[in-house]
Amino acid sequence: MPADSFDIGGNKYRIVAWINYAFATVYVRFIGTHGHYGTIKADEV
């Protein structure tokens, strides 16, 4: 399942989440700053 990335907090933070539309469920996989986001692999979180 591919991950989606969202900018929040005035583009200061990012959330990476998996969204299961069939079950209307969101799985938050990562919350952090843009700098920290650059150090992760969003598809592997």
Describe this structure in words.
It is a single chain. This protein has one helix at residues 34-37, and strands at 4-8, 13-20, 25-33. The protein is mainly beta and 45 residues long. It has one domain (4-44). A 3-stranded antiparallel sheet has the order 1-2-3. It is flat, with a radius of gyration of 11 Å.
How are the secondary structure elements laid out?
Blueprint: E1 4-8, E2 13-20, E3 25-33, H1 34-37
Antiparallel strand pairs: 1-2, 2-3
Quick summary:
This protein is mainly β and 45 residues long. Helices cover 9% and strands 49% of the residues.
**Helical content band:** under 10%
Strand content: over 45%
Put simply, the count of helices is 1
User: Structural class per helix/strand content?
Assistant: mainly beta
Number of strands: 3
Order of helices and strands: EEEH
Largest sheet: 3 strands, antiparallel
- Overall shape: it is flat
- Low-pLDDT stretches: none
What spatial order of strands do you see in the largest sheet? 1-2-3
N/C terminus separation: 11 Å
Q: How large is the radius of gyration?
A: 11 Å
Structurally, how many domains make up the residues?
1
The pLDDT mean sits at 90
